[in-house]
Amino acid sequence: MQNALAFKKRYLLLILLAVIAFVICKALHFSPPGEEIVRKVKVNNLANLYITEANAGATTDFSYRFYLYDSSKDDKEFMASLKGELSPFMITEDKDALDKVENDAIYLSVRGDIYTFQSPAAYLIHGSIYYVPIYITASPF
Question: pTM of this prediction?
Answer without folding.
Answer: 0.72
